[in-house]
Amino acid sequence: MPMANRDGLPDTIFRPYLFPVKGCFAIPAIPCSQPLVKGTLICYGIVYGYKPVAFETLACAKGLMTNRILIIEDEKDLLTALEYNLTREGFQVLTASCGEDGLLLAGGARPPDLVVLDLMLPGISGFEVCRRLRASKNVGTIPILMLSARSEDFDKVTGFECGTDDYVTKPFKVRELVLRIHALLRRAKPAGAAQSAPAMREFGLLKVDEEAHRVWVGSEEVSLTAMEFKLLLTFMERRGRVQNREGLLNDVWGIHAFVQSRTVDAHIKRLRDQLGEAGNYIETIRGVGYRFKEKPDDV
Questions:
Q1: pTM for the full model?
Q2: Beta-carbon contacts of residue 80 (< 8 Å; ≥ 6 apart)
């Protein structure tokens, strides 16, 4: 079966997966030497005179769509290295070298599943980009991983208060970054149907739809990130019981999470702010941790 790239030369690297396309079959060549669209693998399967077909279209037909990662980074060498390694990992990768371009890509027809965001960017800073992403109705809940050469606690806490889900200091190991990305994407997936917990939870002003990942305070809907949503559910499931920071790190972030106890404080502060009046249901127990009110009337 002849395989050709866009220059008409044979493609020698391919996997023999068959995808039905309008009643016929196309064999994708993976990877393509020169993708026609940045961030999209193009497959050249010449079967029964068929023209080249985008891998994204074929993958949709088989339910094999990969996660899309947006990298916003102004250091060209680092951006190239991240794009290469994440593409090898099987992700579709979009890139931007400034905050304005990154926001435009994030607001596209198909938004990214995760954003890798540098803090020190030309123009608007990574903090401001993070705030704008969180304020967006379309991409306000997607995971954000922030990169920075700043390792001070103040900068990390500021990042978490802006809404980032993870904070990685430079220099870092690429493999560790990839593991963090996989962990964030796993936590962002909706809960499985096997859970026995009720889909809808109500507590005073709060109304939480687990399956739809939606939260209301009174009649107003609020937007929470995947991590904030999971943190809220954990508190509601354990209302009336004190939760220490170490326990929350283990149960909410997971034992393999690369986070610190101050991360918990920053996320809870942001969660309270997002919940407005309902944020008072979460009380601080000095020297111990946090507790969700047992009854809404206790506020």
A1: 0.57
A2: none
